[in-house]
Amino acid sequence: MSDVRDESDHPGSPDDRRPAIRPSTAAGSRGDTSRGAEAPRPQRPQVAVTPMRAPVDDRRPRVIDLGIVVWVFTLVALAATAALVALDQGAARSELRRSLASDNPTTAPRDIANTVDIAMVAAGGVCVIVLLLVIYGSIRLRERVIGGRGTLTTMGVITVVGSIAFWTVLSPARDVLNPAVTFLPFVVAVLAAVATGLMFTGDVTRWLKAAPTR
Asked: pTM of the predicted model, to two decimals?
């Protein structure tokens, strides 16, 4: 019984062959971990955001001012045409009545006279409407409102069609009117078409689309 020894006390036992954990090594491991946590982060890459379309200058394009100037000349030519017709409207009405009577012999003279009067009043009314709405549309367009261009476009179409129709209606009375009336309606039509076309250039369209919401 006395010869039996505890194996844990034997120098060659497996417990004696286990590597001992040194406190300094464990502390060093924790130190390495803390140094790794405190390591500086890599710098973030610089990100540049490139707009999908080029920025639009807020300044009003010069072509708008040019178009409005052309509209001014259009209105001056339109007013000159109306004034020249008004100066000789008595002779013009007589010639128009005579022409209508010869083309429509069965129509009563009173009806013919009324037709001529209505045509002359309507022409004058259209001139006034075009004048007022062109001024209104020009102001709205300069304020960067896209509806102003729509107004000017509508007036441009009416002016072109109305000028040619006016020239056709007055054809029987050209001999008694000022010679300028024979070509002024075409000048008005051409100027109105040019003024309207200038409002649809690329610079104007981009400037209007980039306008702030009102």
From this structure: 0.72
